[in-house]
């Protein structure tokens, strides 16, 4: 069983930055592709970023490309999402998720991920 715990969310002004962390326990973190998803009220959960098991490949949604950076520290079982130039439309609950079925590709569908954190709220507002 894999447990994922997100932290780092909060209220930030437009143009500001936040760094989300996701600490994993159980399982073998260094073998999992990881993803960050978000869900705004009334919207479906969407993948905003993903990273391969060794950090060699990254995926970004067009809406966050150039503003968000995903990274991981396999020695500490943690994945990060650095968010910059935040916009009000980035407001959502952010979730990290683990894809434990090895794949060369970074999957973006919620159905492909096996374990989820509880989410952390990010609110971008003046």
Mean pLDDT, nearest integer?
96
Helical run tally:
0
The backbone outline, from C-alpha atoms, is globular
The end-to-end span amounts to 40 Å
Amount of beta strand: over 45%
Largest sheet: 7 strands, mixed
Structural class: mainly beta
- Rg measurement, Å: 13 Å
Low-confidence stretches: none
Residue share in helix? under 10%
Number of strands: 11
Order of helices and strands, N to C?
Answer: EEEEEEEEEEE
Question: How would you explain this protein's 3D organization?
Answer:
The protein has 126 residues and is mainly β. The protein has strands at 3-7, 10-12, 18-25, 33-39, 46-51, 58-60, 68-73, 78-83, 92-99, 115-116, 120-124. Strands 2, 4, 5, 6, 9, 10 and 11 form a seven-stranded mixed beta sheet that branches. A hairpin with a 6-residue loop joins strand 4 (33-39) and strand 5 (46-51). It is globular, with a radius of gyration of 13 Å. It starts with a strand and ends with a strand. The mean pLDDT is 96.
Quickly list its features.
4-stranded antiparallel sheet; 126 residues; mainly beta; 7-stranded mixed sheet
């Amino acid at each position: 069983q894999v447990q994922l715990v997100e932290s780092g969310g909060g209220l930030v002004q437009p143009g500001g930055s936040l760094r989300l962390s996701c600490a994993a326990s159980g399982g073998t973190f260094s073998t999992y592709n990881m993803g960050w998803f978000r869900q705004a009220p009334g919207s479906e959960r969407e993948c905003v970023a993903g990273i391969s098991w060794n950090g060699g490949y990254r995926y970004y949604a067009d809406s966050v490309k150039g503003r968000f950076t995903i990274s991981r520290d396999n020695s500490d079982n943690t994945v990060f999402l650095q968010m910059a130039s935040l916009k009000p439309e980035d407001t959502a609950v952010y979730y990290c998720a683990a894809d434990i079925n090895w794949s060369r590709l970074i999957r973006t569908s919620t159905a492909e991920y096996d374990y989820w954190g509880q989410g952390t709220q990010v609110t971008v507002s003046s």
